[in-house]
Structure formats: C-alpha cells, structure tokens
Amino acid sequence: MTPRTKTLSGWAALLAAAAICALGGWSYADARGDEDLSYAKNRDVALADGKRHLARLNSLDGKDAKSVDAGLDAWLDSSTGPLHDQLGRTRSKDASELTKSGSTARGKVTDAALTALDERTGTAQLIATVDVDVTPRTGKGGTERKRFEATLARTADGWKVKALTAIPVGGGA
Question: What is the DSSP letter of 161?
C-alpha cells in the first residue's frame, strides 16, 4: 500500500464516520420531534399520576386526628375540579367520622389503563383496580378489591383526579 492509498483510505473512513454521525443526529432529531413519541410520553405521565393519586384517594391513617387531617390534605392534593370541591365541603364531617372509626386503609393500584387522552383539552379517562387493605381499630381487617373509572385533568402540578366513579365488581353470570 502506497502512502497515497493510505491517505485516501483514511479520508474515506473519516468521511464514512462523519456520514454515520450525521445520519444518527438526523434520526435522533426526527424522533425527538415525533408527535407519536410526544403523545406516548404524555400518556405515560397521565397514567402514572392517575395511579398515584387513585392510591392516595383510597388510603388514610385513622389512628388519630392529626393523621386523619394529613390524609384529608393528601386527598385534596390529589384532586381537582368538582371532586376537590366536594372533598373540601365534606372535610369536617369526614374528619370526625374517620377519627371516630380509627380505621386505616392502604390503597394499592393493581392494574390501570388510560381509555382516552385528549392533549388539547388536558383530560384523560382512567380505569383501574385497587386493592384496599383495611385495618380497623379493633377486630380483624381485610382486603377489599375495588374498580374505578376516573376523569383526570392536567393542572400546573400534573394530572389530578377530577371525577371518580366506583364500578361494581360483578359476580359473573
């Protein structure tokens, strides 16, 4: 191999490497601006926020008034719109009843999916199953399985639950 051939081979390899880097950069830029990717990211964020808030709305520590108050604050923080307003209106009554019962509930979302997402209006529909471990102050507790349909709304603090509907668990026919 002559020095000239070595130089040409080096330049060819450098040109091929530059072309590969340029193609990779173009591909990355194209994917980053992809509407489908943006929609998928928004869907994932709405689903994660919805699951977290639904678990919170099914959890409360009723051992004392301070714990109940903190739990009701968490409920308000997880909600927006009509649900938030309703929880605010019934807060004192809820606090009294929950403190008297002394029960503790821990909600865990076992499965969830978004059935609709409208990025333009900032709304989403979520369906979910939640296992709620209930421990009464006295006696034996247990786990309740619940199903919900929730309307989520995008807020400055992320997605929050705007409306919540319990779906009866059917016994099958």
Answer: E
